[in-house]
Structure prediction request, 807 residues.
Amino acid sequence: MPDTHVESGTAAASAIGVHIVRTEEEAAASAAPAQRVAIRAENVEAWYGPKLAVAGVNMEIRANSVTALIGPSGCGKSTLIRTFNRMHEFAPAARVGGAVFLDGENIYERGIDPARVRQRVGMVFQKPNPFPTMSIAENVAAGLRFLGVRSKSEINDRVERALKVSALWEEVKNDLKKPGMALSGGQQQRLCIARAIAVEPEVVLMDEPCSALDPIATLKIEDLMRELAVQYTIVVVTHNMQQAARVSDRTAFMLAGEDHVGRLVEYRSTEELFTRPQDKRTEDYITGRFG
Amino acid sequence: MTRDLFSREISELQDEVLILGSMAEKAILDSMEALRDGDIRWSQKLVEDDQRINAKRFEIEERCIFVIASQQPMATDLRALVSMLFIITDLERIADHAEGIARINVMLGDEPLPRRLGYIPSMADRSVAMLRDSLKAYIEQDTALARQICEADDEVDRLHDRVYEDSTAAMIADPRTIQRNTYMLWTSHNLERIADRCTNICERVIYLVTGNMEEINVSKY
Amino acid sequence: MNPRSGASQLFLASEGLYRRRRLANRVMTAVMGIAAAIAVIPLFLILFYLLQKGLRGLSLDLLTQDPNRPGRPGGGVRNSIVGSGIMVGLATAIGVPIAIGCGVFLAEFGQNRAGLVIRFLVDVMAGIPSITVGLFIYGLIVLPQKQFTAFAGAVALAIILLPVVARITEEMVLLVPRSVREAAYALGAPRWKTTLRIVLPTALPGIITGVLLAVSRIAGEAAPLLFTALGNQFNSTNVFHAMDALPLRIFVYAVGPYDYWHEQAWAMSLLLVTIILFISLAVRAIFGSRVTVRQ
Prediction:
């Protein structure tokens, strides 16, 4: 009887049922620290002058994980992550409402220094943007120098560590004095990641970090994101759904309605969002039947 | 509004699944009729024809794989294609069981007619009905129907028990019928497996619609 | 048979079109080439003329001797070379920092009414004739001090240099991609650090080119020096006295009565052009291709 193993399997499972329950409890208990919330957005809204671009976003971003933001162009996903490190306010007449808690602290509280927030929440941009006048090593050290780190040996150590974490060290260790702009696009982007993590931020925001890269360079960055998530919290905006599906633990889908105001539509585990989304709009978007 | 070609490809593939399903259904009906009539040549032909069903299944599978590779489907589309892959496997296995019945007829050889089939024909009727219904549930994405079909499987299991009892009783009463009754048991087993495969299809229908994977009805066998 | 004949027909049709396009392309290329040639003809004529007329007067004495008394052939223009060097250097030292500050302000903080006003004023300044600048400094510095000074001349030159360098600085700073600034902000750099350590170094090659242009221009100016530095027969390094300059001496000698003056004026013109040429080449050599090629 080919199927007897099913019954015996069930029997075995029920025999150890008690243990299974306990193991789950234990698993939940041990998983709890990993579920720490790195960023909590409370009713966040973002304005450009009189225009409301993002409204009513409530979300928790788990520490040491990759969270992806997807959505069509103009849905406010880039605007939203820029509220997480107070970069939004560099746009003319830009304003943020609501609260963003970084490790429990509201970064929009009066008296909070935006520069300090940005040291804790690093950012990688759509187009690789190494400082054009600086060498590879100087680029990585730039953030440390802004922080006022002077010790040469400390800077060298941290540059090397950041380049190793960014999987760039082997490729550039003999060319540290070469200009950052001399690298290929994918290498430049990894250099920018190294520059961002050299100051040891808690969170690294990535705004479509692979949209200017070729597929192989893209996959390298994606691998890197997974590895970085061990130590850092990664939030990545992407318009590449496959990328979100590949790299992220949780995915948020944003959409701008008729009023052109971006809102969070659905936010759940990546596996669930891409195989069985709960919202019809998510379904339409990820199956390419948007509109 | 978009992805018309992709939607058309999926619905074409669904039609192909239905064709495969009707091929499997015909294989069951034909093999049962050949068994009843002792038509050994027909059964031999049915054994050969199973190759066509296998070929059909691989053809659909390859198309599915190419669609997955080229379109990177998500959500409902992904579930539709993955379900299809499982369903065609089930259908192909169903046809294999029908082939098994045909082989049994060949092995029975010149056993005198009429064949004493007992509950087997009604098992076959129920299995075929389950197959039809499960494909209907698939096309109409009808989860209620899918769950109902799984209940029908219990009935087939009960009939299989009856065949088992009858056959063993007959074997004890007259050891000369051991071989013939063993063949009957095999036939009954094949039909029971066909009904089980139908419940698999129903589980896929529920996954396709809801995204949940659940074991609806653990078969007795 | 049908598709083939169709294809060849298409081929023939495109052949005619292709020929027309190729012809148009050649004609336009030729027109552009001729225009470019016409544009550089004056430059070569000037260089040729200068070499022809100026080489004769060029000698070691010209560079090392001060002028003789008028009417006595010989002597040199050492005083003018030294004076030009001092005044252009001083004007650059005064004008460039102010101009760069102004340009950076306009680019980084000038997107408002104040910026608009300042930008307008800078543009007006660039349009003021250089002789007017000289008169203005004459009234502002020379008259109150009752003394023609090299300092006054340098200030006048600085005023001419200022709008040129300020506007070029603004343009160059604005050319620094937004993404570069954002990278610095995202690392937690405050705005002033970003401007000073990231934006300005990135814009520097362009700014240097602008400074060079401006220096070349003021090195050749005579008009603003007429009522300020006045000119000086004798070699002087005191910036609070009257001082000579190459353009001034060229002017005096060119309109003077003696043939050897005319010859020396040509030689000085050649010298001036050569010096400017060497300054640009030297800076280009030092800063490499970064001066002209921006990312």
In short: The first helix of chain C runs from residue 2 to 54.
